[in-house]
Structure formats: structure tokens, C-alpha cells
């Protein structure tokens, strides 16, 4: 599966997956926000902003990410969300220092529960969510990429679930991986901890596109701006329907989506789009869930 031997990646992967305790031992938490939220022209950028700890998904980081995802999410001005990161590691997964025996079971449960909440929230949001990956994405960081609707990666990126190597099998990342990758590819990642290169991740469907590092921003914004050209209400209906039908058998999926197509036609934007096409003009979207009167 992975063309590069684990021995060549042992040090960077171990560093990325660790809690970065050595880097931050004995020091107070940085004053900077763990995530940074910026929004312009319909695109919200959420930046994981703790490179000193390799953007580990600590409880605080997860809470900050959840807050930024949910902020004013129903606004018509929000059309797409992009998740990126500062530093050479996109996300190293959970902060292992928080998972030591010094913390009790209740705290550990809280960490994993909010992580699951954030991952499922991404697919429940009414706007597309894009992962912009430049660097390592390991364990729950790989889970984050797999949970996004679209993932654009630089050619230097790598993806791994190396928990098995430290005695903590990546069972929760496996939920997202198992729904994004062929089963045998996902299980090889989970059983061996071996990384996927960006091109291998593309080949197996973990990411949508791979581009040179210097083109990553341009390509991500190209996709984002294209999304912004469509009706938010129509996209919200389509996204929710897509994930819903994926869990159904074929006959049930077609029955459900047939009704959704009919419902889509009752939306103001559903009719506006058809009328604009017939009249050969650009549609004027309302971005609302209102029905055509």
C-alpha cells in the first residue's frame, strides 16, 4: 500500500502523533487562540493554530473547533468552510498527554465524545466543509480529513493511523476511514500504522485532489468560490440527502431521493434556477428555505 517504508517515516510520524509533551513540558499554554476563524466572500477559514503541539486535538482544541464550525452557521453569508492548519503538521490526532492514566475515565470519555461530536457535526452542517491539508495528518487528524466533504492536499502531505504502534488502536478514526476508503486499504492502515502518500490517498479516495504545495491555496479557493456560486438552500438540501441515502438500501435511497427532488422544485431557488436557465440569465439566489409562491 505505502511505497515508503515505515523506517523512513518513524521519526516524523512519532513526532506528529505524540502529544508534544516534550515541546511544551512545564510551559504555560500559548496565549494565541487554538483555532483562528476568518470569513470573507462566503468562505469561512478555520485554522488549527497550535503548531507547537502539532495541532493536536486536545479537549480545548476540539471545543474551539466546534465553536468555529457552529458560529452563525445559518447565515446566508456563510457558504463554505475550509479547515487548514499552521505549521508542518496538519493535525497529529489526540493529545496523548490528556489520555494518560493521570486523568480519569470520565475525562477520557469527554475527549472522545466531543471528538465524535465534531466529526459528525461536519457532515450535518448545511454548508460544504473542505479540508486543506499541507503536511502530516495522523490518527484523529486523519479522521478529520476523512470526515470533511472535500479534501484538497498538497503533494507533500501524508496520512496515517499509527495508534497501533503505541498500544492505542485508532478505533474512532476507523469509523471515518472505513466510510472513505476501501475496507482492505483502511484495515492495512489501521493494522500497520504505515502512512499513505498524498497520491495514494487520492487513488483510494481519502482526498479529492492533490496539487503542488504552492498551488494548494489557489485550488482550494477555486473550489470554494465555485460552491459560492450556487444556492445555499439547495446545497444544504443536497448535502443532507447525500449522507442520508448513503446509509440506505438502493430501493429506499431512490424512493427518498425522488421525493427530495420534488421538494427541491418547490423551493424558491429551485424554480429560480430553472427560470434563469430558460431565460438564459444568471440566477439570483435567495439562499432561503422558502417555497416558491
Classify the beta-strand content into a percent band: 5-15%
Helix content: 40-55%
Uncertain regions spanning at least 5 consecutive residues = 1-12, 14-25
Order of helices and strands: HHEEHEEHEEHEEHHEHEHHHH
Radius of gyration: 20 Å
How would you state the average pLDDT, rounded?
A: 91
So how many helices? 12
Label the overall shape: globular
Span of the ends, CA to CA: 55 Å
Characterize the main sheet.
6 strands, mixed
What is the structural class?
Answer: alpha/beta
Question: How many strands in all?
Answer: 10
Keywords: Fatty acid metabolism, Lipid metabolism, Mitochondrion, Transit peptide
Subcellular location: Mitochondrion
Function: May play a role in fatty acid biosynthesis and insulin sensitivity.
Organism: Grus japonensis (Japanese crane)
Kindly describe this structure.
It comes from Grus japonensis (Japanese crane). Pfam families: ECH_1. InterPro entries: ClpP/crotonase-like_dom_sf, Enoyl-CoA_hydra/iso, Enoyl-CoA_hydra_C, Mitochondrial_ECH-domain. The chain has 293 residues and is an alpha/beta fold. It contains twelve helices and ten strands. The longest helix is centred in the middle third of the chain and has 20 residues, at 105-124. The N and C termini lie far apart (55 Å). Residues 1-12 and 14-25 have low confidence and may be disordered.
